[in-house]
């Protein structure tokens, strides 16, 4: 006999009513903003039972799916350093040029579940496992260099806010709802990250066309024990490129696996994804010389002030054999380091060092997840750890303790000279305290820096993204976000968004007067290449076979990937067309070409060309195609519309530059 709803009231916790915040044991909590530290800028302490309880519960909320980064795509490859970095670090994979280090990379979205779409407006995970001779090193990065909070104790709250709302489990993989905007509006340290999330960086065209950032400030330590502060960067060979928001919504309807499929197919074709590793380095004695705290994870180091040194290359060239065994079971941890790489007191990083192990314990069924093939180091590993769920090794011997006489103290710790890991000897002193350093209290300067750095189209896209997101929220949340967040960053942005979402702009306040810009933050300042670019070629039945084979050859010779499309799949001579308008669309291609012959264009072809033009893509035409413009809203003289027989190089240049932004 099932319980009636009324019978469940005694088991119901009503969070809508006023009540004190307590631990799960009922202990009233006096502080939920800051973890317990040794001094305001010191490391997080293990005795912070409230932080540990909160994070442990959060880490175990999803079984077996990851709480965040659930939808991922993995690929194998290799890394090679260009020149020895021994002046900065003793890590062997960074000091031995020519040595190839195997890697496994997992790209992911953050907020959506495993069944969500590839292109929501979201952060992208970019986690790299280096299988080095000294053990596994995990660089657990994102495609954005900052994050939403300064202290890990807030991470569960943020994810609860951005996930589908708990009362109705909506919306999926989206930040355009009340609880997200409520949280970021009253936790204004998120201001900088909100600008990134609302920008084109949140809509990557391909996993191979986005940057990666380690987010945190780490340490590199050399053989002499000297430390440097470092930030890690991945720079894509294919450049940074995006899809437009309207285009993303259509792609998600046409091909939910768009980013995953693109990378999979390119690797199968022999087109690897290539990234260069860059580092920004600050000498330890210069720790306090910036106009912000370098340990603050909501701040970036402007590349014009601290140049990125390109130090190595990663080539991703092998797809997985089994998604579950590799992509799903891979376990990353920012605490997986090798000699020569160490941590700082960034309070978000400090919390992650606890959280990741705890997460893997529940997700992968116990403490032996490191023995799964995808997680296993390539170097030997020996210790006195035994048994546990899913133990896959057979341990010989009578002793399983250290120190021991019976087995000559084996396995034996190594000295640092022999390669044993040693933590950097940082001096730490201070009172145990739950607080944040005053140097972390500027929340808006770098949000304005980011805005200042965008091109005109990028800024307009950001304004429109804010309008879309807040337009999905209740009026009171719109007002809150505009007054507490946007109005403290930029007045022009505030007035634009307020006008779009139908609320009165709040009174002017002292917005950020930060005038600096960083050209490196604009996606317009990037590499441009034809490699892996796709072209949808619309074909009519009366086009000659010779015309098609010539077009195919010319495009492929330049590295482009053509798909020949018509109403039906049929043969023209010996050539069989690839797809129909039922299965593909212009939103799935970087460019469109129409080779129409003398027959009028069918309606689907017109729709595809009009939308490609709207999305500012290069459009080519040829062979008796001039008459097509009688059916289109744009002319053959429009920007980015090219007769490929007369100016093929001009067409290629338009494709290479991704969009015709001044169309």
Automatic annotation (TrEMBL):
It catalyses: 2 H2O2 = O2 + 2 H2O. Its cofactor is heme. It is an enzyme of class 1 (oxidoreductase). The active site is at residues 69, 142. Residues 1-17 have a biased composition (Basic and acidic residues). Its EC number is 1.11.1.6. Residues 22-410 form the Catalase core domain. There is a cross-link at residues 333-356 (3'-histidyl-3-tyrosine (His-Tyr)). One of its GO terms (molecular function) is metal ion binding. Residues 1-39 are annotated as: Disordered. Heme binds at residues 66, 106, 155, 352, 356, 363. It comes from the Bacteria. InterPro entries: Catalase, Catalase_AS, Catalase_clade2, Catalase_clade2_helical, Catalase_core, Catalase_haem_BS, Catalase_immune_responsive, Catalase_large_C. Keywords: Heme, Hydrogen peroxide, Iron, Metal-binding, Oxidoreductase, Peroxidase. One of its GO terms (cellular component) is cytosol. One of its GO terms (biological process) is response to oxidative stress. Belongs to the catalase family. HPII subfamily. Decomposes hydrogen peroxide into water and oxygen; serves to protect cells from the toxic effects of hydrogen peroxide. This is Catalase.
């Amino acid at each position: 006999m099932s319980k009636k709803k009324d019978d469940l009231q005694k088991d119901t916790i009503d969070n809508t009513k006023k009540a004190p915040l307590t631990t799960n044991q009922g202990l009233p909590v006096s502080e939920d903003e800051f973890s317990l530290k040794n001094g305001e800028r010191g490391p997080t302490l293990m005795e912070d039972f409230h932080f540990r309880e909160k994070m442990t519960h959060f880490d175990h909320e999803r079984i077996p799916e990851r709480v965040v980064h659930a939808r991922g795509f993995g690929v194998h490859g290799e890394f090679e350093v260009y020149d020895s970095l021994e002046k900065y670090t003793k890590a062997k994979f960074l000091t031995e040029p020519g040595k190839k280090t195997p890697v496994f990379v997992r790209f992911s979205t953050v907020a959506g579940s495993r069944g969500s779409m590839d292109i929501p407006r979201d952060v992208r995970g970019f986690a790299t496992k280096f299988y080095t001779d000294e053990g596994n090193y995990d660089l657990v990065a994102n495609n954005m260099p900052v994050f939403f909070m300064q202290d890990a104790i807030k991470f569960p709250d943020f994810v609860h806010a951005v996930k589908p709302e708990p009362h109705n489990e909506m919306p999926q993989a989206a930040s355009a709802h009340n609880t997200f905007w409520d949280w970021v509006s009253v936790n204004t340290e998120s201001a900088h990250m909100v600008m990134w999330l609302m920008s084109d960086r949140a809509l990557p065209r391909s996993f191979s066309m986005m940057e990666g950032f380690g987010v945190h400030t780490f340490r590199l330590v050399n053989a002499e024990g000297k430390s440097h502060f470092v930030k890690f960067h991945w720079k894509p060979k294919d450049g940074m490129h995006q899809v437009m928001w309207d285009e993303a919504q259509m792609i998600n309807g046409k091909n939910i696996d768009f980013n995953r499929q693109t990378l999979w197919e390119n690797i199968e074709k022999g087109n690897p994804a290539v990234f260069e590793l860059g580092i920004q380095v600050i000498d330890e004695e210069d720790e306090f010389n910036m106009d912000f705290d370098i340990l603050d994870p909501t701040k970036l180091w402007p590349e014009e002030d601290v140049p990125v040194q390109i130090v190595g290359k990663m080539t991703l060239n092998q797809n997985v054999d089994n998604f579950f065994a590799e992509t799903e079971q891979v376990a990353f941890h920012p605490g997986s380091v090798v000699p020569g790489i160490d941590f700082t007191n960034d309070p978000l990083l400090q919390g992650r060092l606890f959280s990741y192990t705890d997460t893997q314990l529940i997700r992968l069924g116990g403490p032996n997840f490191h023995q799964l093939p995808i997680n296993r180091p390539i170097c030997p590993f020996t210790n006195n750890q035994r048994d546990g769920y899913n133990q896959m090794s057979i341990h010989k011997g009578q002793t399983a303790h250290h120190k021991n006489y019976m087995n000559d103290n084996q396995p034996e710790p190594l000295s640092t000279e022999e390669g044993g890991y040693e933590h950097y000897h940082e001096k730490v002193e201070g009172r145990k305290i739950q607080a944040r350093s005053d140097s972390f209290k500027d929340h808006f300067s770098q949000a304005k820096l980011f805005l200042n750095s965008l091109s005109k189209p990028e800024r307009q896209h950001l304004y429109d993204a804010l309008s879309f997101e807040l337009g999905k929220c209740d009026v009171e949340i719109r007002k809150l976000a505009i007054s507490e967040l946007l109005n403290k960053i930029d007045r022009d942005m505030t007035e634009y968004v307020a006008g779009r979402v139908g609320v009165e702009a709040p009174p002017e306040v002292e917005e950020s007067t930060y005038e600096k810009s960083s050209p490196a933050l604009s996606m317009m300042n990037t590499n441009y290449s034809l490699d892996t670019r796709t072209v949808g070629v619309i074909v009519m039945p009366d086009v000659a076979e010779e015309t098609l084979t010539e077009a195919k050859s010319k495009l492929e010779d330049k590295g482009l990937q053509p798909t020949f499309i018509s109403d039906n799949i049929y043969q023209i001579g010996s050539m069989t067309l690839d797809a129909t308008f039922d299965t593909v669309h212009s939103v799935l291609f970087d460019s469109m070409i129409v080779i129409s012959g003398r027959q009028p264009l069918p309606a689907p072809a017109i729709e595809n060309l009009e939308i490609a033009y709207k999305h500012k893509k290069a459009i080519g035409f040829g062979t008796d195609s001039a008459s097509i413009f009688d059916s289109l809203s744009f002319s053959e003289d429009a920007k980015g519309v090219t007769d490929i027989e007369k100016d093929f190089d001009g067409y290629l240049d338009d494709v290479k530059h991704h969009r015709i932004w001044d169309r």
